[in-house]
Amino acid sequence: MTPSMHRTRLALVIAALGALPLPGLAQAQMAAAPTTAPAAAEQTAAAQGAASVVIKGARGGATQADTVIAAKSRVLSRKYASSCAFMSSPNAAEDDVALAYMADFGMEDSISNDAPRYSDLAPDGDAANSNGAAGDPRRFSDRAPDGDVSNARLPSSIGAIPGAPDPNAPSVKCGAGDRRFAAGRNAILRKDKSLAQGFEALDRRDYARALALLTAAYKKIGYDEAALALAKMHLYGMGTPRDTGEAVRWLRLVADGRFDPASDGLRFDPKEPQFMTEKVEAAFMLARIHERGIGIKPDPDQARKWYARAADFGFVPARDILGQAWLAGYGGPRDARKGQAYLQDAARAGYVSAQYNLARLYYRGDGSGDGAVPRDLKQAGAWFDAAARAGHPGALFAAGRMFDLGEGVPADPKRAIVYYKEAALKGNGDAEFALGTFFYEGEQVPKNLDTARKLFDAAARQGQADAMFSLGAMAANGEGGPADQAMAWVWFSLAKAAGHAGADAALKALAPKLTAQDRAKADAILKPAAKS
């Protein structure tokens, strides 16, 4: 038994009833062990030889390489003007960090940027200065898809010379006809205003016009943005009757469309964990629709499928959801190992919720046999600590509880108070209750019944059962504020409804002391009259 479990917690006495001990914090926390687990401070965990964790998070943001380069130099975007997947090898110049750097110095179209581009100046390669070479066949114009030879030293430089390389030969497995198709599409793209006008109409709530313009924009170019907006309009009934089936159709056009990892893949940023690309948002919306049964019958299997698609697109929070789904057996059989793998992947990427959930998994363990995740307090402590350092209220409470109860580390109530205070400031009810007991006892901090009562009240209003019971006892005894038997009855009643073991006895003991006025006041709170 830990030192904290030996300590006497609140011992409040209701007159004429003898002692009515309030539950100890240790007992309440032990009962809550499956949902609140300890986390070691980093230094202590290291000293104990705890397993270390590695958190990584790539710099992210809304920058899309193709969109930026296409907008600045009017190149043929691989995303919008491709008939046969115009793609090339990854290039460092298309990395978002490089793009941000170039933007700061006006270098987006610098000749030093060797990113493969499909220019509107020469779709099949500009041979003007090629000296007979094919030029760069990846640059071409929607006004001259077969090449510009106006200044070529050898007019045959793009012609068919026996034995000579064909300058129109596909550089990325696409032929001249494909280039012409893409060039024509790009010409439409550069002149088209339907997408922008559609969103302007949407902002003005002119839904009928927005619906028409966005539909036209998608038919012309195939904008993911247009399809996603149309899906939302059909889902929410904006300018058209609500139609989940039609919303799903538009969402699938986005989620099932050609995926280019270089431009469509999402780079996770722990500082903006909810940022989504169009493809991610479409997949995530499909998952939510199937999970919650929005306009259709709930389908856990389909929900998990679309969460997996969002995760594949790079959306790390979806991996946290998938981890919990595998652990709960949602949308398929339970598999603790798979759940652990998803949570670990998201936690290492820096997603705080996954760090907390992974810590809870290690704290309690899951299952037995080959597929089980064994209990591991060192890993639990390390991941709780990682989440606590990121400010997660539950992890802060768990760290405080670890030091309070001496689990995995020597008991250190003073250090526990620090963690409890941080968690309480973030509104964690368990931490507010724990901190209140320290002010009530006055052992580690100066005794202050007024502060204790306020902390119990804050926790009780969040549904913390032990705080409800403690607040009822203090109200009955007039501690930390005026005595109020009616409110004592209210809080004991709510504690009983929340499952508190001692509440029923407290109610029976308090009942003879209530006046008719007290009962009327309590009933008015617990059983308010229906509004006419």
TrEMBL record:
Domain of life where this protein originates: Bacteria
Keywords, alphabetical: Repeat, Signal
Keyword S-adenosyl-L-methionine: no
Cross-referenced InterPro entries: Chitin_Synth_Reg, Sel1-like, TPR-like_helical_dom_sf
SUPFAM superfamilies linked: HCP-like
Transmembrane segments: none
Pfam families: Sel1 (PF08238)
Keyword Repeat: yes
Cleaved signal peptide residues: 1-28
Annotated spans, Disordered: 114-176
Record's compositionally biased regions (Low complexity): 122-135
Compositionally biased residues, Basic and acidic residues: 136-146
Name of the protein in question: Sel1 repeat family protein
